[in-house]
Request: fold
Amino acid sequence: MTQFNEMQTVKRRFFAMRNGAVADNMRRHGANYRIIFGLNLPQIVEIANETPSNATLAEALWKNQSTRESMLMAPMIYPRDEFGFETACRWVSEVSTAEVGDVLCHRLLRYKDFAWQLAVAMVVSSKAMERYVALRLMFNLLPSHLDEVKDLATIELEKNEQLTSMLCRQLIDEVDFLKE
Reply:
């Protein structure tokens, strides 16, 4: 019987659950991945839940930037206690899409003690995607730092950046709601 390494096992699971129609639709709408299996997030979570937490495999998946599902699964299996600030900064700088940034924030970054420090450091970046991830992470950290979050989102909104504008408006609305 053939033995597969961890990466091959994950890729075989992606392949077994692939959805060509979804993958084709994502490509038509501009997804810039060489390989898209067309899995939805619950399917990726299912595979991640069956995969032991493993920093080496998570890094290998993260480096596989040509495959959408690899980048989405990586934050799901990285052991939280091994994920440090320097690694977080590197990963944020390597985020390729808002979807990847959303999953990174929701599945990993928000659980770190340094999450606020990371968000504040990245929100002043010259790169729109890094600012997007910072603002997205702030969503996960509410209701703390309400006034600071609103000020930072307002500053970003004034930049009129397509990637971050809607997120800023939502964040400001959420802060206003929480302050009522």
